[in-house]
Description:
It is built from 6 helices and no strands. The chain is an all-alpha fold.
Amino acid sequence: MLTGFLILxxxxxxxxxxxxxxxxxxxxPVAGMLILLIGLMIYGEVPMALRLPAEGLIRYLALxxxxxxxxxxxxxxxxxxxxxxxxxxxxxxTAVTLVVTALVLKLMTRPTxxxxx
Length: 117
């Protein structure tokens, strides 16, 4: 289990180094997740040493929403004044996400012509 946490933290640390070193406008943990994804794609499967801690973290994923809820309550006055901007950005970003996901799915499921003449 310790090995799995070490892998996760190493990927996050490498992501932070890359983001800070290259000055990328991306959070370090996101870059670390990409590093982890590439490593898992090369390896071909999720090793058991990584599977156990990852499943343990996912089990408590709902706890990560508590800080966001507290932030909403702390900044309720701002949200009351800016609700239209917040609502528009939420709806707009959801629409863009759906369109991009649909386009990627369409691209990825395009039938290939295997019987070239």
